[in-house]
Amino acid sequence: MTVEISATKRQVQGTGASRRLRKANRVPGVVYGSGEATMIELDHNTLYFALRKEAFHASILSLDLDGKKESVLLRDFQMHPFRQQVQHIDFQRVDAKKNIHMKVPLHFVNAEIAPGVKTGGGIISHVLTELEIICLPTDLPTAFEVDLSGLELGHSIHIADVKLPKGVELAHHHHAGDAVATVQVPRGAVEAAAAADAAVAEAAAAAAPAAAAAAPAAKK
């Protein structure tokens, strides 16, 4: 699926010009890479709702710039500190013959039937939510599926368990033994069990002197 976004070239630059664009419900931005940087502007509402879609962050985008289409990646965007307003956005041009570095989301499935959850009463913890990969633009996956159906209590799924498609490799800071997801007993349950054990031990300690005193009396 190709994700499309439209923009026009921005003729006027500077802080004042960007402020006027935002008041007109437009977002200033830039397209860089493989040539000179191009200053652009986009419709705010269209961009705002596009940014809420996962695919917009992890796909090759088709940017229609004044009627001319080019392939780009979303590289950065800034939001207003407290308003629901996009302040600026950066796109990078894509060269079909050069590798790209991208963060691809992890989609976790079958958590509800994992033995550690269904029978062990555990809770799934997502240690990672995305993996950074290196690949050609044509090989870019939209997401990685992580099947949790066999995850036992106290066990983990590791990066080595994630299936990578052909032509895709992990960024070098990832390691095969790194955990992706785990299933653990809820902290409250652990604390409750510890408190119960402590209460039993305390009761046994309190009963010991009384039992010791009763023993000689019984011999008489």
Q: What's the short version?
A:
The chain has helices spanning 15-23, 44-51, 54-57, 115-118, 187-219, and strands spanning 3-9, 26-32, 38-43, 61-65, 68-79, 86-93, 100-109, 123-126, 130-135, 144-147, 156-158, 169-170, 179-184. The chain has 220 residues and is of the alpha+beta class.
- Coarse morphology: elongated
Helix-strand makeup class: alpha+beta
Runs in which pLDDT lies below 50 for 5 or more consecutive residues are none
Q: What's the CATH architecture of the largest domain? A: Beta Barrel
Give me the oligomer status.
single chain
Sheet-strand content, in percent, reads: 35-45%
CATH class call of the largest domain: Mainly Beta
Helix content: 25-40%
Number of helices: 5
Quote the distance from N terminus to C terminus.
91 Å
Number of strands: 13
Going across the biggest sheet, name each strand in turn: 1-3-2-6-5-4
Mean pLDDT: 88
CATH overall fold name of the largest domain: Ribosomal Protein L25, Chain P
Major β-sheet profile:
6 strands, mixed, barrel
* Radius of gyration, in angstroms, nearest whole number: 28 Å
Elements, N to C (H/E): EHEEHHEEEEHEEEEEEH
CATH homolog superfamily of the largest domain: Ribosomal Protein L25, Chain P
Query: How many domains comprise the coordinates?
Result: 2
Structural overview:
The chain has helices at residues 15-23, 44-51, 54-57, 115-118, 187-219; strands at 3-9, 26-32, 38-43, 61-65, 68-79, 86-93, 100-109, 123-126, 130-135, 144-147, 156-158, 169-170, 179-184. By secondary structure, the chain is an alpha+beta fold. It has two domains: 3-93, Beta Barrel (Ribosomal Protein L25, Chain P); 100-188, RNA Polymerase Alpha Subunit, Chain A, domain 2 (Beta Complex), CATH 2.170.120.20. Strands 1-3-2-6-5-4 form a six-stranded mixed β-barrel. Strands 10-7-9-12 form a four-stranded mixed sheet, with no helix packed on it. Strands 8-13-11 form a three-stranded antiparallel sheet, with no helix packed on it. Strand 5 and strand 6 form a beta hairpin. The mean pLDDT is 88.
